[in-house]
User: Fold this.
Amino acid sequence: MHSTNTPATFITIAPDSAATRGTTPPVREPPSLAARCHALIAAAPYALTSDDVLFTAFADARGLAPEDRPAARAAFFSKGQPCLRASALTKTYGWGVHHDAEGRVALVGVDDPAYAARAAGRGPAGEALTVVAAMRSKR
Assistant:
């Protein structure tokens, strides 16, 4: 089984991002994957792992029933999935993603003072973080 969880990691915004602050993805119907992920993480920081967020957004978009989700999750992660480094949240909307020691995620806007500390490799309690940049939007 593949996983997108990366404990004690901070994903900075993409080097080619024009974002100067963390912004909520626009509301539209149906909601974009970025909007679904943003809503899940913003509603409960450090409650879900990256795998939880990505699969829940996928399952919600497809209207999967709760009883069908365990098998669908196994199938979803049976092959590699793009992680939050490839998300529009980190490439377009100005959100860094902090993964705590257990791999649970929270959003940190590029305009938030905490962003600079996380980007420098320091977690909220001073713990060391691995810092990786989001993927570029353009080659």
The chain has one domain: 9-133. DSSP finds five helices and four strands in the chain. The beta strands are 9-12, 95-99, 105-109, 130-133.
